[in-house]
Amino acid sequence: MKKVLILGSTGSIGINTLNVIRNFPEEFKITALTINTKIDLLEPQINEFNPETVVVKDERLGLELRKRISNKCQVLTGEQGLIEAASSLDYDIFVGAMVGFSGLAPALEAIKRGKIIALANKETLVVAGELITKMCKAYNARLIPIDSEHSAIYQCLEGENKNSVEKLILTASGGPFLNKKKSALSAVTVKEALSHPNWKMGNKITIDSASMMNKGLEIIEAHWLFEIEKDKIEVVIHPQSIVHSMVQFFDGSIKAQLGLPDMKLPIQYALTYPSRLANNYERTSLPKIGSLTFFSPDMEKFECLEIAYKVLDEGGTAPCVLNAANEVAVDKFLKGKIKFSSIPNLINTALDKIENHKSPDVETIFECDKKTRELVLTLG
pTM for this one? Predict the structure, then answer.
């Protein structure tokens, strides 16, 4: 039985991970669950899965939960609680499902222990890809992506010689604004931006999908995950979200992984790798789908894609700046403080103003993140 720690158990990935584990009670045991603030959602998870430890990042809410659940399990709080859980608890698989930069420090602790890292938190590789890949090799930790696109590529590369890869093809739905003109983006509402046509996700990642920053982050993530240069990473728009990504080889052959837009599939693959376990999820019916379409993205409209390619060229702490600036800008948009079209503008301003440090260590990455957030908070 594999013991699992879920970092971010009340978000969409965390909930889907628990849905997968619920189907395989003989295969998995929950060791720990961590959250930011949603203790009302965490409490029934505790009652069902009986973790030994839970962590609540918000210390005040952590204290409240501790009173509620009496002696059911250990309750840790704060950033230090997340790090303590990752660095000292007994688990085999670390599921990185917490959105944003806050998932980095616990992931580093899991890597140091040589754990299996089932990674949904793309920001971890974006801000510290060079460091993470080096550490995984040094500590013999295995990184398995949960993102549907990177899971697809991971599956397509199984049994293949990676030296024969000509390019990776990341698919993108295009989000809710696929058919809008660039000039109309300044007037879109938060509600419109949160109306994704295919996927049900948290607010931050849904806004990233609308701006296509989500795909920009995935380009950087793919570069580090698969050790491939940016010129060999292509993005194509695929509105149906059935082909999750593809790999083209030197002989011209293309392998693709297909499935319905259901995050339980890549999550289960990561948890059960290298095995595949039978399940009762809805099956993909190609006759029912009828047709699949593909076309190139409008790089002028979706500026965040172009910014991501530029940042990957610059390297160093530029991806850290990109990520921090985007997180703050998205939060500002969700709170009605800026227009949707201002998101790439704030990111570019931060990239211009924050110094880029090459081959950064952990301390430099954290300092860069802090400076970027402080700057973007002052921008309108």
Answer: 0.92
